[in-house]
Every structure is written in structure tokens, then in C-alpha cells.
Amino acid sequence: MKQVFYRSIYLDTELNSLGGGQSSRITLPSNEFSVKSTQLMEITLQSLECRRNWYSVNKYNNSFSLFNFPAPGGYTHFKIKPGSYRTFVDLATAIQTEILTVVALAGSTCTWHDITRKFEINLVGGLATSYFCSFQVSVNTPPAPAGFDADMYFSDNTELLGANPTQKWDGITPVNAFVTSDVVDAPPMVGNGSHFSKFVGALNTVETLYLRSGMQNNNFQSLSFEGNTQNPQSSVVSTSIFARIPLSRSHYDNTFEIVQFEDYNDNFSMLIQQQHLAEMTFFLSDHAGRPMAEIAQGQSQSGNLSFKMCLKWKIIEQEVPQGEYRVRDPAMESQGIAQSQSNRHRN
């Protein structure tokens, strides 16, 4: 395939929001973005910029629970204060502050161990059978216990706390999230005392942004990129993902607050299976297909979570093998596109 024509498209999504504000629809003059039946359109991402205007700790990852408290079979829920925590010590302090909102647990503490990269919650005031749990259950199966909302029942908090997640369970007894010590393969911890992270903790649970498009494309994804996958298998399915934008830092930085992506190798592209392109829809998501968590209601609609990008729209067609003769296509001038000199004189 060879490129015979291209245009650059510069987009700012601040004023073109849809619905809740995170999707952006751009209308195009279709006569300027058309191809012949023997040609294809290709769209390639050249660059993308956005401000890191979301919190690393947010509604998608700030919730965990204490099981068998205040009574056997019951849950006490905790939600870490949303924010951009730059150190694990600050995050440990926020976890402790949230636990201490329960008066009966007064005296409980949370500390961070820098060598093992694990949290330690010293539980005081719990029952002998109490333990912490964190849920990451897809498609609400089995149904969430009373008092859980959708973000609590499918949460990335397990990555934040380095906790053992409850994913597949019987709907009665959740998985114990923490262990008795910071040594390898320590047993689960129950009751008052030190509850250690089973795995390493994190300041952020989003490593990459995904640019998604409403246009039908030729890309595929594994099912794990959807939070509500009913059958998470190893197979791949068609996807709305257009490009992957990696985040180079684990937390917000005052100096480097802008996420910048430049692609010089046409790594992210999609072929458009239509002859006329009248509109395009784009939005950013996290790894589970969720829109970026708003700091306050209306943030997206106000344009505060907008992004800017440059796309290259290309016309491509199959090359004629050497020595093969084909009937010349109608002149491109009929589509309002200037035909290159070399294309006019090809066989």
C-alpha cells in the first residue's frame, strides 16, 4: 500500500464535549475527506497533550473494607481522601486518617515500609475475626453485598494497597487482603494487630491512558481492557482503542504536569472502511475502559479534562506490481483533491 495524499488535523476537545463531557465529536466537511472505491482512508495519531487534571487516588481506587466488623458478617467501608499523593508516607497517613473516622478503631495506625514497599495497618478495636478486604469483581457476579456501590465492588484499590483482591468468590466470605508480616508467603492476618500488604503498594493505578474512537477500526484488544467483561478469556476482540499514551511518572509533578506524546513512527493508526468521513468521536479512558475520574462534578463538561491532538489523515491505495498494467482511475480533481504530478503520469 502506498500513500497518495494526506492532511493534518489539529483538534482541541475543550468545546466539543458530548454527554458527561469526556467524549468529543468533531464534524468534518465530507467532500474534503473522501476517497474512491479503490482507495482507503488511514488515520494516524501524531501527537497528544493533556494536563494531568485528575487525582491519582480517586473513586476508582480509594475504597476498601473491614469484614466482620462491627458484627460478624458485616462490613465497615473506608474511602481514602482523593488527592495526588506524592509520597507513600503521605498516602499511609491518609489511610490512617480514614480508618480513625471509625471511633471504635481509635488507636489504629498505618505506616509505610520503604525497603519492602509495603503498608502496615496496626488494627486496634476490631473483633477477633475481623480482616481487611478489597473487591475487584466484574459484572456484579455474584451481586455486591449491601452498602457497596459499583466503584467499590470493582476497585483498583488492591494495586494501591498491595492487597490480595476479592475477584471470584461465593458472595459470603471475601478474600483476606493482608498478611501477618512483610516476609514472603506470610499467612493471612485476622483480628487486631499488624496487617501487612501481601504485594507491593503503589501511588497510582493508571500507568497508561487509552485514546478511544467511536469509528469502526481494525484494532483488537484482550478482554481485560474492559472492567465489566463477562467472560475474561485470553482471546482478543475488536476494540475502540486507537492509541496508547504511557505515563512516565507515577504521580503528579508540579514541573511536568502535562502529559505529552509525540509519535514519529506512525505506531498508532486505523484504517477506515468507508468512502466519506463526516465526523469523528474520541475520548480518553483508563485501562478498564472507564473515563478519567472527575475531581468534581462538571469538570469534564467545563473542558477541564480536555486534550489536544494532531492527526494525519491519509489516502492509501494498493501499489501496481512492476510490469502490470491497470486502467487509470478517474482524476482526483473530481474530489477537490489536487493530484500529485507523479500520480497523474503513472501507468
Written description of the protein model:
This protein has 347 residues and is mostly beta strands. The protein has 2 domains: 186 residues, Jelly Rolls (Sandwich), CATH 2.60.120; 135 residues, no CATH class. 7% of the residues lie in helices and 31% in strands. The strands form 5 sheets. Strands 1, 4, 16, 17 and 19 form a 5-stranded antiparallel sheet that branches. 31% of the residues are buried. The C terminus is likely disordered.
Provide tags for this entry.
Jelly Rolls; 5-stranded antiparallel sheet; disordered C terminus; 347 residues; 7% helix; mainly beta; 4 helices; single chain
Quote the distance from N terminus to C terminus. Answer: 16 Å
Largest sheet: 5 strands, antiparallel
Shape: elongated
Q: Could you state the order of secondary-structure elements as H and E?
A: EEEEEEHEEEHHEEEEEEEEEEH
What is the percent of helical residues? under 10%
The poorly predicted ranges are 332-347
CATH architectural group of the largest domain: Sandwich
Report the sheet-strand fraction.
25-35%
Mean pLDDT: 88
Helix tally equals 4
CATH class of the largest domain: Mainly Beta
CATH topology of the largest domain: Jelly Rolls
| Rounded radius of gyration (Å) | 26 Å
Number of DSSP strand runs = 19
Find the structural class using helix and strand composition.
Answer: mainly beta
Number of separate structural domains:
2
